[in-house]
Specification:
The protein is of the alpha/beta class. The chain has a single domain, classed as Peptidyl-tRNA hydrolase (Rossmann fold, 3-Layer(aba) Sandwich), CATH 3.40.50. Helix content is 38%, strand content 17%. It is built from seven helices and seven strands; from the N terminus they run αβαβββαββαβααα. The chain has a seven-stranded mixed β-sheet, with helices on both faces. The protein starts with a helix and ends in a 14-residue tail after the last helix.
């Protein structure tokens, strides 16, 4: 009886969403690291995404390698500020609870290479998350933030340095680092599917990747 109750309490993702902007000019930018994370999952799990008008994004289904259950992946094509529309379209169609949606996105407040998995929380100034919270009508859904760091000398969220940093591309050294981070993100998501988000938090929140000093040239 206790074991059943424990299993019911586990938060296991059924829909994994990566946030980003759809146009080619945004490919490989820091703000699109959520898209890159979903691409990494697709590659690892051999799931193909295709444009889905009903779900307003690139959508695919497959079998999770951990528990062999159905898993859904989504990259909204609504642009970041309207991400919640696409997420709500999928959750409404399949009658998924907000708690079963894992959203992956970039975070300037985390250092480059740091990841943070949480069961709930505020938008923290991220427009994609503001939209998601608004459309799901709750903050109680898991999210995995990937640190992209802050630009030097940036004063506020909307200043030019911040905007160009977020919409800029990773340097060669940063790209190598983020490749490692994305493989770690796959590991974190698989752990969430196997043991639940709460247990996966211990592993995901304790690691920190960094660029070797020899490669860290500005």
């Amino acid at each position: 009886m206790t074991e059943t109750a424990t299993k019911k309490a586990l938060v296991i993702p059924q829909l994994i969403v990566g946030l980003g902007n759809p146009e080619p000019k945004y490919d490989q930018t820091r703000h699109n690291i959520g898209f890159a994370a979903v691409d990494a999952l697709c590659c690892s799990w051999q799931i193909n995404l295709s444009g889905n008008r009903k779900f307003q994004g690139d959508y695919g289904e497959g079998v999770a390698p951990v528990d062999r259950k159905k898993i859904r992946l989504l990259k909204p094509s609504t642009y970041m500020n309207l991400s919640g529309q696409a997420i709500q379209a999928v959750t409404s169609w399949y009658k998924l609870s907000p708690e079963s949606v894992l959203v992956i996105y970039d975070d300037m407040d985390l250092p480059l290479g740091k990841t943070r998995l949480r069961l709930s929380g505020s938008a923290g100034g991220h427009n994609g998350m503001k939209s998601t919270i608004s459309h799901l009508n709750t903050q109680n859904f898991p999210r995995l933030r990937i640190g992209i760091g802050k630009p030097k000398g940036a004063v506020k969220e909307d200043d030019k340095k911040t905007v160009s940093h977020v919409l800029g591309k990773f340097s060669v050294a940063e790209k190598q680092l983020m490749s490692e981070v994305l493989q770690f993100v796959v590991e974190c998501v698989e752990l969430s599917l196997k043991q639940g988000v709460e247990k996966a938090m211990n592993r995901c929140n304790s690691s920190n990747f960094s660029i070797p000093e020899s490669d860290n040239k500005s």
